[in-house]
Input
Amino acid sequence: MQTLFILLIVYAAGIITGLAFIFRKAGQPYWAALVPVYNLYIWLKVIDKPLWWFIFLAIPFLNLFMLMLMLVETAKTFRKFRMAEQGAAVLFSVGYIPWLGISEQESYTHPRDLPPYKKSKAREWADAIIFAVVAALIIRGFLVEAYTIPTSSMEGSLLVGDFLFVSKYAYGPKMPNTPLTFPFTHNNMPVIGGKSYSEAISLPYYRFRGLGKPKLNDAMVFNYPSGDTVILGEEALNYYVAILHEEMRAEQLYGSDYRPGMGREMLHRRYGSQIVSRPVDKRDNYIKRCLALPGDTFEIRNRRVYVNGKHIPDPPDVQFRYHVYVDEHAYLQELFRRYNITDVAPFPHGFIMHTSPAVAEIIGSGNIPGIRMVESPMIPHEPTVFPQDTNHFQWSIDQFGPLVMPAAGMTIPLTPENIALYRRAIEVYENNTLEVTDNKVLINGEETTTYTFEMDYYWLMGDNRHNSLDSRTWGYVPEDHVVGKAVFVWLSLDKNRGWFDGKIRWNKLFRRVR
Output
């Protein structure tokens, strides 16, 4: 954060210094460059632009775009019409603008006295494309971005094939950790594959002020917390859970010859170069519902969610798992289509279906010939459920907690018994070393019995409760992973239907995300 602040100070100082000399050349008081707001007024006079530009200069993040336009217009007043010259005024303004003001070879010309400059068709197209790309990148990076729902983890609230807008300004946009990124990509290059970003410049976490903070039941987009290490080609594979599975497998294979770490070695031998690490902002984007805020106590009892001891009603379209038994005369396709059921899997003498309790009640009423349905039993404790420590926590996706959400400034006691709950937050998210030896907890090499968190953490779960990779698997979501709030669905396509067979879900278009 300190490095970023220093860079911004240097950048601003360079431009202000350059403007002071440019103002003098333009017959304006040089000291005006040092006066906030007034310097913008004088600058607009120098480049002969209307005062209503102030409206856009006052809008957060759009003012970045306006600043670029003003730098280009400033270059024009020094008869810099070539694309390379105007590009230098934007990209290297910290040095280029002072040079225009200080150099005795560069003279100012009022815009109305500039000679006409005829652009070629190619230049006009290039300017239009650059204008559109820069504007889109600012809007996409700091205000609103479009996303697509690829999996069924949020059905039936958000469906596979929903196209939605996510407000980054709702919680405040993040400064990109990796600004050197190929435009309009996330972490992979289209077609050719490979990384779409460079880590030559790596910025610390910083979030601009937004409209508010996350609230309970918000549908939030975030960077996948377990995505710091991924296995390429394995969709949504949790690397750390994969290690846990391999350790269990290695223990079975080697018996008395087993030693801790064998599973990790087996995993790396199998995947090798497919295992890669990613910075926070380049981890895959997920969407889930916020069910606990920093400082809250979260618990699941018999599939019902409780926060601070109070039952939190399920979202209207929440889904659970049901076992459906059918005979050969059941009209399944018609059933699926009528009730918009998309998340099914084969099962002996039938299938497993994920749907809402309301639909389950209709189907399970016995009025549909050839179909019998029962709710799936409560899932017992599982080793893959957070915190992946069955010695101390016998939790499952249906019976979980209680668990306190860490909050910035919160101090918690640390013991060998509860360290599994906080290890990843302390080590990975807040960049500390942690060891447990001889029943002692050491952080950054020093023995301690407490820890004070630096960030806020959230608990996020899918509305499709029995088919969602969420916090019940990988734990808390740190604040620096939060991207924005899902606000609006503008298109919904059913991937299982053709364009002339109901591919567009007309009744799901232009709806607000609940």
Notes: Residues 107 and 212 are 47 Å apart (CA to CA). The first helix runs from residue 2 to 25. Residues 2-141 form one domain.
